[in-house]
Fold this protein.
Amino acid sequence: MPSLSPLAIRWLGRQPYETTWALQKALIGPIADGEAPETLLLVEHDPVITLGRKAGAAQNVLSPDWSVIETERGGDATYHGPGQLVAYPLLALREGERDLHRYLRNLESLIIATLADYGLPGERRDGLTGVWVHDRKVASLGVAVRRWVTYHGLALNVTADLGHFARLNPCGLSSDVMGSMATWLEKPPALREVADRLVAHLPETLGRSAEPVALEMPT
């Protein structure tokens, strides 16, 4: 069995979207050049709506009460905010990994495995990217790649205020399809705990080591 690549794990806590977006872009070059290890950024964002490259994404913003930011990731309009765990894997895709559809399915597998730790049956929907529990969508995905380094990633609703999704058609869907782990769990876990569970599933889903390594982050 091949050895797993070490992944630098960084929990950033609560951060504005723009700060973490800039950090991702600053890391792409060093990772691509082998000067920095592959990295997983884990964060909770202040309220923001982001737009992917899908045509018509801006039309799905119904009430722009917060910043609306156009990004280079795939996908449609989505919301980020408190109570939502956001994970940004910056992986240098190797030969045999350079299939973005497969990469998205691996990210979905990472979320499904994490939900299973809490007894929640995560599942995929044909033709739709993301993860659902029963009839509710609990996680959204949108990625980009530069120099075969992935960035952007996934957002898992843990205790997010689902009413905030009413300000848009998330991923082009009606906001009433959105759910969170708190929808089914009497005592939902803390975001940091869910982040730790997600990290524990990196080996079998993304083929990376779950052991944190020392990393000096650019400022």
Helices lie at 17-32, 100-116, 191-200, 202-206.
